[in-house]
Specification:
Layout lengths: L5 E2 L1 H6 L3 E7 L5 H4 L2 E3 L3 E10 L5 E14 L6 E15 L2 H10 L5 E3 L4 E2 H12 L11 H7 L6 H9 L5
Parallel strand pairs: 6-7
Antiparallel strand pairs: 1-8, 2-4, 3-5, 4-5, 5-6
The structure holds zinc ion.
Zinc ion (ZN) binds next to loops.
Organism: Chromobacterium vaccinii
Family: Belongs to the DUF177 domain family.
Protein name: Large ribosomal RNA subunit accumulation protein YceD
């Protein structure tokens, strides 16, 4: 487990602070790992406090990482370059947050607790940035023939390949 990185988000934004670094993927929470085929590598983060045109405090969070996700067709690993850039808007009260979200459905709003764990924020962003149903352009033949070994009809295999995502 990575040690939490705690900030006071409102103060961080008000003072226009920045924070950047790298975290080993292996130290992130299990809920991140469950979407990955392995947990090697690290994620680079850049966090910038600011305020938007409505004078609301914001945190901009940018992430890059070379990850491996699981192909949903052959269940083998495949590389995925994560590259996200998002802004969360901070609100001092739930009431103000609800009001703002009603006016702007796209708003990524967070209630500004006195302490915010930057790592938890990064984990949330990774999960949202991962592909929903990743698939190789072409799965390797070895893996496929293993996966389909119990199906004798080659046309069934072809049909399965052509079928749009089934969930
Ligand atoms: Zn595949």
């Amino acid at each position: 487990m990575s040690k939490p990185i705690l900030i006071d988000p409102l103060k961080f934004a008000r003072e226009g602070r920045s924070l950047s670094g790298k975290l080993p993927v292996g130290g992130l929470d299990e809920r991140v790992h469950s979407d990955l085929s392995d947990t090697s590598g690290e994620v680079s983060y850049q966090l910038d406090g600011s305020r938007d045109e409505l004078q609301r405090f914001t945190l901009r969070i940018r992430l890059t990482a070379d990850l491996r996700v699981t192909c949903q067709r052959c269940l083998d690993g495949m590389p995925f370059s994560l590259d996200t850039d998002s802004v969360v808007t901070l609100f001092a009260s739930q009431e103000k947050l609800d009001e703002a979200c009603e006016q702007d459905e796209e708003l990524d709003a967070v209630l500004a607790e006195p302490e915010l764990d930057v790592i938890a924020l990064i984990e949330d962003e990774i999960i949202m940035g991962l592909p929903h149903s990743p698939k190789h352009d072409e799965c390797s033949r070895d893996t496929l023939s293993l996966a389909k070994a119990d199906k004798p009809n080659p046309f069934a295999v072809l049909a399965a390949l052509k079928r749009p995502k089934s969930e």
